[in-house]
Amino acid sequence: MATYTRDEIIKRARDLAKMISQTEEVDFFKRAEAQINYNTKVQEMIGKIKNLQKNAVNYQHYGKHEALKKVEAQIDQLQEELDAIPVVQDFKTSQVDVNDLLQLVANTISNTVTNEIIESTGGNVLRGETGSKVNGAGSGSSCGDGCGCH
Hints:
Blueprint (H helix, E strand, L loop, with lengths): L5 H16 L2 H15 L1 H22 L3 H19 L2 H35 L10 H4 L16
Helix pairs in contact: 2-5, 3-4
């Protein structure tokens, strides 16, 4: 069995990150983001939403509840209009796709490490038990029955 250092693992993680950054999902994300950044209508709407959000914070701070409700309604309407724009929909879809890929990689690493630990200790992967659990280590407790320590 090979033993790796933390630095070697980090290097490989960086290599994996570079691979991920060169996937179709990330490429589509970059293109969708560029379309949003160059779309003046989208940028204007985002600017309006940000200004209204600042107003909402101020209204909330000063207890102006009616003004806050009106501003929140304006924000919701603008957000709905923004979300209906195809380039915004594409961008949000691309964000989800990239996040899904990252989650898949993280889960794969986590599950593989867990399974490797179980297998290397002679455990049972299907039950999720390491070899020491399968072989009954600790079952001969000396504290007597019913103490709850095993």
